[in-house]
Structures are given as structure tokens and as C-alpha cells.
Specification:
Chain lengths: 441, 458
């Protein structure tokens, strides 16, 4: 602020009132103007660069994730010739139609039969070319068609992680040579990996899937929504429409505004201490209120976290409904409750839903509080209910990112793509709702 | 019967009550002077409320109390005398008996627990059915009481509306309860921590290594100053060096220079940066940014550059904060009266001169408040530092060295395998309390600044 923008004109002490008009055409003035315009251009350029760079950070992030992740959706299969007649496996045919079929086939040594078939077909070390879970594919095929046991057959089984990587040009020279040999033999094929969407966590990167985590996320979101939405909307209605202006109302408002800014990890500590800590009530030692690692606890914790978001969005939506509507309803004899529930709330609903979806999207991407309440278990079977041990998609991403095996990098990125698609869909829905139903009064 | 099924049952009873009461109210309506005071639906609501609310209240209370009752009943059993006296083992055995009692096909490994399975099952079913019975009785009693009160002149509407106001009030009290819950639970666990570790050791000690805790002097290895420094260095220095210029300049460009069409597209695009989950940023930081930063450090001559440098975490965190700073700056620049801007332009100032000498100084309080809020968000950010920063607690000014943060340590302390009451886990709550208080103060100051500044222009 110190430098004046207007050039100083020399003023003598004897004639202070008269100022000679600035001659903008002089060389000095022209230079000055050029300098100012150059500064203007630079400033504008910096602004433009900031926007472009910020956007390219986003683009770079997405490109890295997609470049790493698209391979996670594909799978390498190896066509494995098996001759069950030669393998010497004895299986009771009558059991194959019963639920005991899995046990019967495992007990008959199917796993070893598949491994030795691989060794015969691909030479010594051939059992390392196929995934550890390859025999499960064979088992399912046999269960569908028991007559396979009498025949020679070629069946596509998942390749091991090493071969999977080598086919794409990664890995050490020996494995790459083996992969090249398999490719020349024409037994390698690549498919879309439906198992990635339908299976759960595993120790083997070719066998992992996200369904378990996704189902955990859905259950957690259901709990979060069922708690946060009614409580958030009801408290917004109370604060905006009925609450008297007094110290208590101020206290509620202050705590809602502060809760919206509390770091998410603090909610994890709250959940850990309140839902999972030991309580003593009237001298009874009760143990934890709720089971550890369950979607119920995660959902409750996240509900407390996003409730302020929903309250603030709902209050803004309710505030935007013009007073004339309330006056008109009151004028024809509606009670205050009827005014709100019959007139104001339906009109505010698009705004409320938009805020709710944005809050839910935030909850879906949240990791830290769920780590603290133990939703980081190794979950091989998808959770069956709200109280089963579960994990969620972001936590699954975190767990996979910790794995050292090379195959997990593309799986992690692929899971990130799935998560981003969900978030994008939710935000897109919110924008659509806002544009479609938003009313300007 | 489990609590969910019971709730559905009660809700069903409520629906029946609603239908019955509405039909009954319609019969009372004779028109004229004997007209119903309230609508039939409101009578229905009245009965439904009386049916559902007391029963639900009881179910909530009962699900809190009954585990304790079951436990007491099991401890009365003669076999319980063999239980070890030490609380932890005792709880583990009781939990095992409970697990076997509630899951089909499970078997107990411990003989004592196996003996306790039958009493646990008996006690659980006894108290379960007791609770169910009382809940249903309450539902019927409440519904019947309400039904008898239905008459034509009965003011069901005012009763229902009073009930709804109470529900609304309770809903809005949950926010206060949550705040209180956070504060009290953190304070409670922290007090337990400070009874074992002197508070001065924790706040002013400069050595942090929770892996090796000297049982006699736990405070010696639980000094949190390196964590506070790391948090400040990563969240308030490095991240802000990225976020403030980028956020401020993009807000200025989008509000003052960009064509409306560009603004309409670019603003949501930048806001997407804030919508990306932090676990994705963390992965990005660990996978891409951290190795690049290390290579940079090596090429600059640091031979022992860490691959978990403070710089990598801080940079990515800064990118995440950009839209936050940008939207706060946007708001406060928009709040400057147009007359000031127009006046400056009319005097012949260029747009950039107007912005940097008129708009920004006038919007400065708002911008500063925005930066404070951004700092509070950055220091509470967890996943980026958990995945990209190191666990080594150093006090360093070199961004290529490793630094750790409060949030990272909270996660590390609580996800390891250790019992709940050790100083190690309690330290996490003390760190949480510190974090909570600091972010709270930052927010209060920032909101106060914003409010004062808004008033100045309105």
C-alpha cells in the first residue's frame, strides 16, 4: 500500500492548488505503463497456472491410478491338461451331488492331482505356473459335471502371480522365459477378471476380490444412513423452525459447527472408547457394548461423523424455503408441525438429499476411524450381517497397499478405481438432484 | 429374540394400533357439535406413539442392562467358581462361553468355558424372553391406555404434536451428547494416562519411542514434542506452502479473470480434489510421490534420503487442501463490497493492482481464517501420513528427513497387538485429546475472525 499508483507531480510551495495534467505520452510514462501491464499479465498468468496445475494434479493422480489399476481387472489363464484316470484319484461319485462334495474332492487329493498335472504338462516347476487356488476352479468344474472325472480334459485355470506378471513383461528373466514358452505353446489366455468383483480378500494377489469389502461398505453405509439421516434432519428442523433463541440453542449450534470440523480420527477414538470399551453400570462390569470389527460399530461411528454435515445442509435447505409458504399454511389453519412436515420439508427435500449424499460419499471414503475400531480384519468370507466382522473398501485398499507382493499394486489401484467410480456416481447423483429439483424462489 | 426382530414386532404393533385407533375415531365422529376435535389420523398417531415409544425405550435400556444380568447369572453358577480371579482371563473365558452359546456348531476349547456354555445359554434365553415379554406387555399396555382415551372431543393433535416436539428436541441434543462424549471419553482415558505418566513428561519430553517403554519411568519414552513438531512441520508448514499459493491464486483467477463458462467447469473440477478419499492420496503419496522425492533428494546430494520423507506427505496433503483454501478465499473475496473494487478500477488501477492492493487486504481476515481452518484440517489428516510418513520421531528442519505426526502415532499405537489399559494405548487417547483441543481452538479463533469480519462489511 505504500507506493502510490498515481505519479507524483512536482508541486512548488508557492502554487499548491494547480497540478499539471500528466503527460502519458512521455517515454517514462509509457515505460511505466508497460511495466504495469506486464505485471498484470504475470499476475494473471500465475492465477491461470495455479488453476491448470491444480487440475493437472487431479489428472495425474487419476492417470496413475488407472494406468496401474486397469490390469487388476484382467486375469491370465493357463489351459491345463488333466487326465483324471491317470491321476489315481478315488472319488465316491454319489457324494458329488451332496453338500459334502467339496470335502470329498479335497480329501481325494484333488489339489495334488492338479499340481502334478501342471508339472507333467509344463515340465519341472510347472506347479508354480498355476495359482494356489487353481484346483478350486477344477473342483467347481467337476461338481458341475462329474463325468469329467472319467475323461482327459483341458481346463483354464488362473496363472500364478509370477506368470501373470511375466506375461505382461514384468518379473525376472527366468519367469519371463517360462511365460514366453507357455505363450508359444498357446495355452495362455487373458480374460476380464470377474472374480475380482465377486471374491473376497486372500493372501494370493491373483485370487483377491473386493466383494467382501464392498458388502462391508454397503452394510456400514446402511447403518450410517439409518441413523444420521433421521437424526440430522429432525435436529435441523428443530433448530431452524422451533428452537427458541437462548443459550441452549446456541450451545447446540456451536457443538454442531465444531463437530463438523473435528478430525475424523477423533470419532474413531470416541467409537473405540464408547462402543468397544468396558462399561460398568451400577457395579456390573458389562464388557463392550457392541462386537468389535462389526459394520454396526463402523456405521454408528461414521453416523456421528457425518451428522453435522447433514444438519448444516438441511438447515440451509430449510432456510431457503420462503416464509410466505409458512405464512400461507398457518393462515389456512395448519398447526406448526403440519406447516413443517406438510409444506416446508417436502420443498426442502432436494437440498437435504443433496447434502445427505455428499455426507454419505464422505463416509464411504473414510478410513481412519474404522481402522481404530478394528475393521481391518482379514475377511475371507463376506459379512452376513451387521454384527459380523467386516471390513470396508477404503480399509481394504489400505491393507492391500501394505502388502509387499508386486501383484497387489495393481489390485490396490483397481480397488481404488472401483471406490472412485462409486464416489463419482454419488456426487453425480447429488449434482443431478440439485440441478433438477432446485427451485429459485 | 434379538433386538432387531423385537423392534420390528413393536413397530408392527404400532401400525395395528394406528389402524385401530383411526377406525375407532371415525366411529366417534357424529358431525355437528359432536365433531372430532382432531383428524382420525392424529388419533391413530397418538395410539401408535403410546404403543411404540415406551416399548422402544425399554428395549434400548434392556439391551444395555441385560448383558450385565446374564453375566451375573452365569457367575452364580457353581462351575463359575473355577474361573480365574484375574479380570482379563475371566472375561476371555466368559466371552468364549458366550460365543459358543450363540453360534451354531461352535465348540469351546477351555473346559471351564465349556461348562459355562449351558448356564450362559439358559441365562441368555431367560433374560431374552423376559425382555421380550416386558416389551410386548408395555406395547399393549401403552396402546390400550391410549385407545381408552379416544373420544370425539379428545385433543389428540396437541398431544401428538407435543410428542413430536420432544422427539425433535432429543434429536438435536445428540450433537451436544456427541461433543460431550468425545470430550469426556478422551479426558477420562487421558487422566488415566496422566496418572501413570506425568503430564509434563508427555507435553515437554523430546524422546518418543513407545515400542520400548521403561515400566518404572514410562514418561521417559513418551515425550510428545517430536510428534507436535512433525505435525506442525508437515501440516502447517509444508502443506501450506503448497496449498496457500495454489488455493489463493486459483480462487483469484476463477473469480476475477475466468470467463463464466471456464469458472463453471473448473470450480467443480478443483473441488473434486477435496472429494478424493484420503486413502487414495495416501497410496498415491507412498507409490509415486515418495520415491520421486527420494530420487530428488539423492540427486541433490543427500545420500541417506528417507523414502518416507516429510516432504512427500506434506506435498500431497497440500494438494488435498487446495480446494479448501480456494473456496474460503473465494467466499471472503466475494464478501468485499463491489464499490471498493469498482472504485479502485475507476481510479485507473489494473485488475491485478485492484486485487493485490484492495481486494486481498480487505479480504485478509477471511483468508487468514480460511488458512487457520485449513491448518486444522491438515493436522487432523490421518491416512496420508499413515501411509506416506514414517514412524520415526525426529525433530528436523530438513524436509527430506522423516518426521511423524500425532495422527500417525495414534493409529500405530492402537492397531498394534496390546491390551487396552497399557500406557501405550492410553497415550493414544492423550494424543487424541491434544489434537482435539488444538483443532477446537483453531476453529473457534477462525470462526470468530470470520464473524467479526462479516459484521464489519454488513
Amino acid at each position: 500500500m505504500s507506493k502510490s499508483l498515481v505519479p507524483e507531480t512536482p508541486t512548488g510551495p508557492e502554487e499548491p492548488a494547480v497540478r499539471a495534467p500528466t503527460d502519458w505520452k512521455t517515454a517514462a510514462m509509457q515505460k511505466r505503463i508497460r511495466r504495469r501491464y506486464a505485471r498484470e499479465w504475470r499476475f494473471r498468468f500465475f492465477g491461470f497456472a495455479a488453476v491448470v496445475l491444480s487440475a493437472s494434479f487431479l489428472a495425474f493422480l487419476l492417470v496413475v491410478m488407472v494406468a496401474n489399476g486397469w490390469r487388476g481387472f484382467t486375469r491370465t489363464d493357463v489351459a491345463l491338461p488333466i487326465d483324471f484316470a491317470a491321476s489315481g484319484m478315488v472319488v465316491e461319485r454319489s457324494q458329488l451331488a451332496t453338500p459334502a462334495a467339496d470335502l470329498a474332492l479335497a480329501g481325494a487329493g484333488l489339489e495334488n492331482a492338479v499340481k502334478s498335472a501342471a508339472a507333467t504338462a509344463f515340465g519341472p516347476g510347472g506347479e508354480d505356473f498355476i495359482s494356489e487356488n487353481a484346483w478350486l476352479r477344477v473342483r467347481d468344474a467337476i461338481k458341475r459335471d462329474p463325468s469329467l472325472l472319467d475323461r482327459k480334459l483341458r481346463i483354464d485355470v488362473p496363472a500364478s502371480t509370477r506368470i501373470d506378471q511375466a506375461v505382461r513383461g514384468d518379473g525376472d528373466a527366468a519367469t519371463r522365459a517360462a511365460a514366453a514358452r507357455l505363450q508359444q505353446a498357446g495355452v495362455v489366455s487373458r480374460h476380464f477378471n470377474t472374480d475380482f468383483l465377486l471374491e473376497s480378500d486372500s493372501t494370493d494377489p491373483v485370487a483377491v476380490g473386493i466383494w467382501g469389502a464392498l458388502k462391508g461398505s454397503l452394510l456400514t453405509m446402511a447403518v450410517t444412513f439409518l441413523i444420521a439421516f433421521p437424526v440430522g434432519v429432525l435436529s435441523a428442523i428443530y433448530l431452524e423452525e422451533y428452537a427458541p433463541r437462548n443459550r441452549w440453542t446456541d450451545l447446540i449450534e456451536v457443538s454442531i459447527n465444531n463437530l463438523a470440523a473435528v478430525p475424523s480420527i477423533i470419532f474413531g477414538l470416541l467409537g473405540l472408547a464408547v462402543f468397544l470399551g468396558s462399561w460398568s453400570l451400577f457395579g456390573y462390569q458389562m464388557g463392550p457394548l457392541l462386537p468389535r470389527s462389526a459394520a454396526l460399530v463402523g456405521g454408528l461411528t461414521l453416523a456421528l461423523m457425518i451428522m453435522p454435515v447433514i444438519v448444516i445442509a438441511s438447515r440451509n435447505a430449510i432456510k431457503a424455503v420462503p416464509p410466505s409458504i409458512r405464512d400461507a399454511a398457518l393462515g389456512i389453519g395448519a398447526s406448526p408441525i403440519q406447516v413443517v412436515f406438510h409444506h416446508v420439508l417436502p420443498l426442502a427435500m432436494p437440498g437435504i438429499l443433496t447434502g445427505t449424499i455428499i455426507g454419505m460419499a464422505r463416509a464411504l471414503g473414510e478410513t481412519a476411524p474404522l481402522l481404530l475400531i478394528g475393521m481391518r480384519a482379514f475377511i475371507v468370507t463376506p459379512p452376513g450381517g451387521f454384527t459380523d466382522p467386516a471390513t470396508v473398501l477404503p480399509v481394504q485398499i489400505f491393507l492391500w497397499s501394505d502388502e509387499v507382493s508386486r501383484g497387489f499394486i495393481e489390485k490396490t489401484s483397481a480397488a481404488i478405481i472401483v471406490l472412485l467410480v462409486f464416489l463419482l456416481a454419488m456426487n453425480g447423483l447429488a449434482i443431478y438432484l440439485r440441478n433438477k429439483f432446485e427451485t429459485r424462489w | 429374540m434379538n433386538a432387531f426382530a423385537l423392534m420390528f414386532l413393536v413397530a408392527g404393533l404400532g401400525l395395528i394400533g394406528w389402524l385401530t385407533a383411526r377406525a375407532r375415531a371415525v366411529r366417534f365422529d357424529r358431525g355437528g357439535a359432536k365433531r372430532l376435535h382432531s383428524l382420525p389420523g392424529q388419533h391413530g398417531m397418538y395410539v401408535a406413539m403410546w404403543t411404540v415409544l415406551p416399548a422402544l425405550l425399554f428395549i434400548a435400556l434392556w439391551s444395555g442392562v441385560s448383558p450385565g444380568l446374564v453375566r451375573e447369572a452365569v457367575l452364580q453358577h457353581p462351575a463359575a467358581a473355577q474361573l480365574p480371579h484375574f479380570d482379563f482371563e475371566r472375561d476371555a473365558l466368559l466371552a468364549e462361553a458366550k460365543r459358543v452359546a450363540t453360534t451354531d456348531g461352535a465348540t469351546a476349547f477351555d473346559p471351564v468355558a465349556a461348562q459355562l456354555v449351558a448356564p450362559t445359554r439358559a441365562a441368555k434365553s431367560y433374560y431374552g424372553w423376559l425382555g421380550t415379554g416386558v416389551a410386548i406387555l408395555l406395547a399393549f399396555a401403552g396402546g390400550a391406555f391410549a385407545l381408552t382415551r379416544i373420544r370425539a372431543p379428545f385433543r389428540a393433535r396437541s398431544q401428538v404434536e407435543r410428542g413430536m416436539m420432544i422427539v425433535l428436541l432429543i434429536a438435536s441434543l445428540i450433537a451436544i451428547l456427541t461433543t460431550l462424549g468425545i470430550f469426556l471419553s478422551l479426558l477420562w482415558e487421558s487422566l488415566r494416562f496422566f496418572s501413570a505418566v506425568p503430564i509434563t513428561d508427555f507435553l515437554f519430553g523430546t524422546h518418543w519411542s513407545p515400542q520400548v517403554i521403561d515400566a518404572a519411568h514410562p514418561g521417559k519414552s513418551l515425550g510428545a514434542v517430536p510428534l507436535f513438531w512433525g505435525t506442525f512441520f508437515i501440516g502447517a508448514v509444508i502443506a501450506m506452502i503448497v496449498a496457500i499459493p495454489f488455493g489463493l491464486m486459483s480462487a483469484i483467477y476463477l473469480t476475477q479473470y475466468a470467463a463464466p463458462r471456464v469458472r463453471r467447469w473448473m470450480k467443480p473440477t478443483l473441488e473434486m480434489l477435496a472429494g478424493v478419499p484420503t486413502v487414495v492420496y495416501g497410496y498415491f503419496a507412498a507409490l509415486t510421490v515418495a520415491p520421486a522425492v527420494r530420487d530428488l533428494a539423492v540427486s541433490l546430494g543427500y545420500t541417506y534420503a528417507s523414502s518416507e520423507s516429510a516432504l512427500a506427505a506434506g506435498l500431497v496433503m497440500g494438494v488435498m487442501i487446495i480446494p479448501f483454501v480456494s473456496s474460503m478465499a473465494d467466499d471472503s473475496i466475494a464478501a468485499v463490497p463491489t464499490a471498493m473494487r469498482d472504485g479502485s478500477l475507476a481510479m485507473g488501477a489494473t485488475t491485478s493492482e485492484t486485487i493485490s492492493r484492495v481486494l486481498i487486504p480487505a479480504a485478509l481476515p477471511g483468508v487468514v481464517a480460511g488458512v487457520l481452518l485449513a491448518v486444522s484440517r491438515a493436522i487432523g489428516e490421518t491416512m496420508i501420513v499413515v501411509m506416506a510418513a514414517s514412524g520415526a520421531a525426529n525433530i528436523t528442519l530438513n524436509p527430506f528427513e522423516s518426521a511423524t505426526t500425532v495422527t500417525k502415532q495414534i493409529v500405530d499405537l492402537l492397531t498394534g497387538e496390546s491390551e487396552f489399559d497399557s500406557p501405550k494405548t492410553l497415550a493414544a487417547f492423550a494424543l487424541g485429546l491434544t489434537l482435539f483441543v488444538i483443532t477446537l481452538l483453531l476453529n473457534i479463533v477462525a470462526l470468530r475472525v470470520v464473524k467479526k469480519y462479516r459484521e464489519a462489511y454488513e
